[in-house]
Amino acid sequence: MTRIGREIIELCRDRFGPPPREFGRRDARRVRLGTPLWLRLARDESLRRLLRDVLERQEMLLAHGRVVWGSVVQADAALFRRGRGDRPALVIYSPDPAFDEMPDDLQEVAGRLFALRGSESESADPELREFAGMLGDPARRPSRARVPRPLVGSLPVYATTVLVARRQVPGRHLAAGTFPLIIHPETDSTMILPGRYWPPPLLALWRAAADGPRPA
User: Fold this and answer.
1) How far apart are CA 131 and CA 129, in angstroms?
2) Which of 74, 174, 195, 202 could link 170 by a cystine bridge, Cβ 3.0 to 4.6 Å?
């Protein structure tokens, strides 16, 4: 997916437009994230604070953010099926342009991270132990945490928590593990690029993945 990966992410950027971006009232309603009811009632203060930051920073992200590839590390199983309810997900991304043409490599890193869960007592590397413990603890949700170098080498890759808003994801569920994110250097928060800006080649791949086997 080297060549097509770069072509697709550049098409996403073209469709989203150069900063600063302005949105009319109607478009703004379509692209902004809303506060899910469960978040208002959640007892997990760390999650509430993290997602509140995302909601507060979304204006900056939409107006001035940059589009990059992101990959899911772990998410609520319900997000991989059509349904209702927005939920958080742990994703990784890199600001390095090298990953424009390496979305498959990013997904491999996500898989390695997921495999760390529950292995904190097995790793000799303190960074890997720390990350393994975080992945296995629902109360510890990262916000722009640097992924350990043993997993990614010298290129910067970060793990963060996003709110998956179903109405902004084609098909209203995570049909695949890799998709475009919006990032900005002045905030740890990020958000999924709204589906209305996804180009036809990406939509075709997403729909093909939706028609394939789904996670149990």
Assistant:
1) 5
2) 195
